[in-house]
Write a structure and sequence with these properties.
By secondary structure, the protein is of the alpha+beta class. It contains 17 helices and 16 strands.
Length: about 600
């Protein structure tokens, strides 16, 4: 810091003269200056005109100018720095936008006003923040599509000592994860033209039956251990039941009314749309936007079913579908598609014995996880397959109008894998209620056992799954929607086997998940907070604004250790089961709960 100017009083009792006023730079204080701006009387010792020094004839008694205080000290070195910043004429610099007044004083008439304004700003700037502002409650913010709700990038939750001690004993092998940088929100939209969705009409002479497609057949051995099957629903058309008509006006979505075979499904379609989770599960626009932002697909990769017309009047009024998915990864960008289509099966719902299509599908990106234990498909099965997702879309676009009823179990997953926007659906996951969980959706395995008294095979077969979902949907229609809740006999987290004692399962329930949550977010959370990687994180089931999933670990010990390693206060839910809260980056939280009272 340079040395400040010093003012001295003249000999005698006269007023103290302002050395700045008589210098080349002049005085910035104007009328409020503490010192005299009038010329000294004869013999009174006129002030020196030197910039930095007072006259040698002035006595040693002195006072400091108000400009030499620490907050407003003017020194040559600082003035030089200010001058260089002003010379750059940088309007974007927030710190030096009004410094011209320091280096080049304004006209004398405005000096007083400028000084008052600067003094007011300085006084306000030096005012310390109050404690109340610091303690202001953090507001919750909304999460963008696909954003990881957990705060893993900056301050991760440190695992408890229980995890460290157990790792030393050899219970937990996985090393702690390296925090990943926070995903940067895009500020600009990619400058690419967004093509309109494909709704082109195929050749009038071409139908779904004579398309020349490179179908790759595939089959799995199916156990026929069915005991009893309810009577098939009557094929005769029935008028809509009044009790199933919505109390509100019909939604602005197409209904199946083109023929008697279409009308059979009208109530089931309406009941599916009335489910609390429908808007979230069948939010195609959100998924399309999310995949575009993540670089997985673009809008023109999606299809939308077309209005009913003469082109499809000979097509089936309803179909049952089931898709098998695998996980793929782009080798260039590293992006992962967790719902890559690898098998498609379509059944004629008007004649369930007829298989309209059953083929393997070659994914666009290399497969990173075949999920053979679920779908039975191995790497060698996809070798030489030429049938692609675009072939599948071509077939579905030729088969389905916007009034074609698509029957399936959790059929939104199948439509998302096909990237097909369609709202005329009969979803058995939403037509039946869970007996133990309000708003819960039964698995197809429990549904088949409870409704059809049929055991399902351990490995999924998409043809069989489509037929089972169709039989359950037919049963719903035959009962006019008056069906009993489905009892939970089999567990999704027990390899599809009958339920064991929950205390013996290596499972934790994660609930209150926000809509942006993905299975990978939950796996990363456990790895970062507990140093334990889950064995399997299934798809999240959403109901309303929150979702849940049962996270499976390698063993019961791993599950208990992961729970013990989470920081946070332990509480009991309304059923008496213990759970802990895990904070989210927007100020909200999720709950991690044990499966049984302890």
């Amino acid at each position: 810091m340079g040395k400040g100017y010093k003012l001295t009083s003249a000999d005698g009792d006269g007023p103290k003269q302002c050395a700045f006023f008589f210098s080349d730079k002049g005085c910035r204080n104007g009328a409020v200056c503490k010192f005299s701006h009038e010329a000294a009387p004869p013999g009174g010792g006129a002030p020196s005109t030197s910039n930095n020094k007072t006259s040698p004839s002035v006595s040693s008694s002195s006072v400091m100018s108000s400009e030499t205080e620490s907050d407003g000290e003017i020194v040559e070195t600082r003035a030089g720095a200010y001058s260089s910043m002003v010379a750059k004429n940088d309007d974007t610099n927030p710190f030096f936008s009004a410094v011209g007044a320091v280096v080049a004083p304004p006209p004398p008439a405005a000096v007083s006003a400028v000084h008052s304004a600067v003094a007011s700003i300085n006084n306000n700037a030096t005012e310390p923040p109050t404690t109340e502002k610091k303690k202001k409650k953090r507001k919750k913010r909304s999460l963008s599509a696909g954003e990881n709700p957990f705060e893993l990038a900056t301050e991760t939750q440190a695992p408890n000592n229980a995890a460290t001690a157990a790792n030393q004993k050899g219970i937990v092998a996985p090393p702690p994860s390296v925090p990943q940088p926070k995903k940067q929100k895009a500020t600009t939209t990619p400058a690419k033209e967004t093509p309109q969705q494909s709704t082109s009409t195929p050749n009038n002479n071409a139908t779904f039956r004579n398309l020349q497609l490179p179908i790759a057949s595939f089959s799995l051995p199916i156990s026929t251990a069915a005991t009893t099957t309810p009577a098939a629903a009557s094929k005769s058309p029935r008028p809509p039941s009044p009790q199933h008509e919505p109390a509100h006006a019909a939604p602005p979505l197409p209904l199946p009314v083109a023929s008697a075979n279409h009308l059979k499904w009208k109530n089931a379609v309406i009941a599916t749309r009335d489910h609390a989770n429908y808007d979230n599960a069948f939010n195609f626009e959100r998924t399309k936007q999310l995949e575009f932002e993540q670089g997985i697909s673009t809008p023109h990769h999606w299809i939308t079913t077309r209005p009913y017309g003469d082109w499809c009047k000979n097509n089936p009024a309803s179909i049952a579908i089931d898709c098998e998915m695998c996980e793929t990864q782009d080798p260039v960008t590293g992006k992962t598609d967790t719902k890559a289509l690898c098998r498609l099966s379509v059944i004629n719902a008007d004649n369930p014995t007829e298989v309209l299509l059953d083929t393997l599908v070659k994914p666009e990106w290399p497969v990173s996880n075949y999920r053979t234990w679920i779908n039975g498909i191995k790497a060698k099965d996809l070798e030489g397959v030429q049938f692609t997702l675009r072939h599948a879309q071509m077939f579905m676009n030729a088969l389905c109008s916007e009034q074609t009823v698509v029957v399936g179990h959790a059929v939104h997953n199948d439509l998302l894998a096909l990237r097909m926007i369609h709202h005329c659906n009969a979803d058995t996951a939403m037509l039946y209620n869970h007996s133990e969980e309000e708003g819960g959706t039964p698995s197809l395995k429990n549904l088949a056992y409870g409704v059809l008294k049929r055991d399902m095979p351990e490995v999924h077969d998409s043809v069989n799954d489509a037929r089972v979902a169709l039989a359950c949907a037919d049963h719903y229609c035959s009962k006019n929607g008056k069906v009993d809740p489905v009892e939970k006999v089999f567990s999704r987290n027990n390899g599809g086997g009958r339920d064991r004692d929950p205390a013996d399962t290596a499972v934790l329930l994660v609930h209150r998940l926000p809509p942006t949550s993905q299975p990978g977010h939950i796996a990363d959370m456990f790895l970062a907070y507990t140093c334990i990687k889950p064995k399997n994180v299934p798809e999240i089931t959403f109901s309303g604004q929150h979702g849940k999933c049962h996270v499976e670990f390698t063993s019961k010990d791993h599950a208990e250790l992961a729970y013990a390693s989470l920081n946070g206060e332990e509480r009991e839910d309304k059923t008496g089961k213990k759970q802990k809260r895990v904070g989210l980056k927007n100020g909200s939280y999720v709950c991690v709960r044990k499966m049984k009272k302890t």
